[in-house]
Specification:
By secondary structure, the protein is mostly helical. The chain has helices at residues 7-10, 13-45, 48-64, 66-75, 78-102, 107-135, 141-169, 172-187, 215-228, 230-251, 253-260, 265-289, 295-315, 321-349, 355-368, 370-384, 387-405, 408-411, 417-428. The longest helix is centred in the first third of the chain and has 33 residues, at 13-45. The protein starts with 6 loop residues before the first helix and ends with a helix.
Length: 429
């Protein structure tokens, strides 16, 4: 489905970047609150179990709510979804700020707010992602994905020290109010710009033009669409395997630094900072370069590089800490070059009417196994060592990258739909 060369599409930058900037400010507020929650739970309880439950509360909506939210975003007005999700996030955050200011806060209240914020975030993320593909020319989607990856890396660098500084001068309710303010700043541009809405498919409308399908039918259609793109199945399996192994691996990075390399907290900070700096550089490289013409070739080649970096972390001797730092920089650099082109390819490939459902199913599938990996990471690492996760993660990344590069069903996903159609026509003629 080719994007029309409308005036709005030709002059897309002002509208997109104004809305994008508001959402970026809101993301900063969310990162600050996330840091504040971790600090509060750590300082007030000192319990690893409490922290694990908090992480689970933030993760669960990705698994159990994403498929539903995607189907709803496809039938609802996406501008309204963005506004309402930001408003609801601000309201629950404001309520928790009131509890911190005037009463004693209980753990279940914090957990509830963490869950609700993440749940509203699934709607916000899906609506913004699907709107992007209608606001940005397909040829520019990879660069925009690079910008998003750069933003994520910058927030990873800025949020912790800024959060620590604010916690030094503000109480918890003050930090929460900062996030409320950033949500307001995200909402304001939406009142001044039109967000394009995909046309409903004829089969989805009744005689009056109203949406006639039920939610279950929408979700089934999302799964069916994924089935029509065979290569996408391999991508989802790849994402599941990588999340299963790499999420635990990098959650254990503090143990790798302190127990294996025998380094302190400053060195751990250095390791995390170098990873984030590599991430930012990779995102900037993608936003400027745009990647190879075939986006999946860019993604899988970068995944191969990331696998080499992760594998290196598992074999570097204990006196090679600074070699490990270089490996972390490589992993950080390759991360946005893996994820950005992949997301751009999906935005170009999936019909706008189905993007909410398809993207949320992919996200839910990729996140499904992460809690399992996190649950077994601790006991297994205690038994066989932290290295097993990095070695396994490196091997999985390398094998997945090579097998996907050799799979034409996967690499065809990286071409623009019109290119694939032209090839098909040439073969059939």
């Amino acid at each position: 489905m080719q994007q029309p060369a409308t005036f709005e599409m030709v002059n897309w930058k002002k509208r997109f970047f104004t809305i994008w900037s508001g959402q970026a400010i809101s993301m900063l507020g969310s990162r600050l609150v996330g840091f504040a929650f971790v600090w509060y739970l750590t300082s007030s309880t000192g319990s690893a179990t409490v922290l694990a439950i908090g992480s689970l509360m933030s993760l669960l909506p990705d698994v159990i709510i994403s498929p539903i939210s995607g189907a709803l975003v496809d039938r609802w007005n996406r501008k309204t979804v963005l506004i309402v999700s930001d408003v609801l996030t601000a309201l629950v955050t404001l309520a928790l700020a009131g509890l911190f200011a005037f009463t004693e806060v209980r753990l279940w209240q914090i957990y509830s707010v963490m869950f609700l914020r993440s749940a509203f975030g699934t709607f916000q993320w899906t609506a913004m992602l699907t709107s992007t593909s209608l606001m940005v020319p397909k040829t520019q989607l990879a660069r925009v994905s690079g910008m998003n990856q750069t933003l994520a890396g910058l927030l990873g660098i800025l949020a912790p020290p800024l959060g620590a500084f604010l916690l030094g001068i503000l109480p918890m309710d003050g930090i929460l109010l900062v996030d409320v303010a950033t949500a307001v700043l995200a909402i304001l541009p939406l009142f001044f710009y039109h967000l394009p809405q995909p046309e409903l498919e004829p089969s989805a409308k009744d005689e009056q033009g109203n949406y006639k399908k039920n939610l279950w039918q929408d979700m089934i259609e999302g799964f069916q669409f994924i089935h029509t793109l065979p290569g996408l199945f391999f991508i989802i399996i790849t994402a599941m395997l990588i999340n299963f192994i790499l999420s635990p691996a990098f959650s254990l990075l503090p143990l790798l630094v302190t127990e294996y390399f025998k380094k302190g907290v400053l060195d751990l900070g250095l390791a995390q900072s170098v990873f984030s700096i590599g991430f930012v550089i990779g995102g900037l490289a993608l936003s400027i370069w745009g990647g190879f013409k075939n986006r999946l070739v860019t993604s899988m080649t970068s995944l191969l590089l990331m696998g080499l970096g992760v594998f290196s972390l598992g074999i570097i001797p204990s006196n090679g800490f600074y070699v490990a730092i270089a490996a972390l920089a490589l992993v950080g650099f390759a991360n946005p070059l893996t994820n950005g082109p992949l997301m751009a390819a999906m935005q170009a490939r999936v019909e706008p009417q189905k993007q909410g459902r398809v993207f949320s199913i992919i996200n839910a599938g990729a996140s499904l196994v992460t809690p399992i990996g996190l649950a077994i990471a601790g006991p297994l690492s205690d038994a066989v060592g932290v290295h097993i996760w990095f070695l396994a993660g490196g091997v999985v990344c390398i094998l997945a990258a090579v097998s996907n590069l050799l799979n034409k069903q996967v690499t065809n996903l990286g071409k623009l739909p019109e290119e694939t159609q032209a090839q098909t026509n040439a073969v059939n003629s």
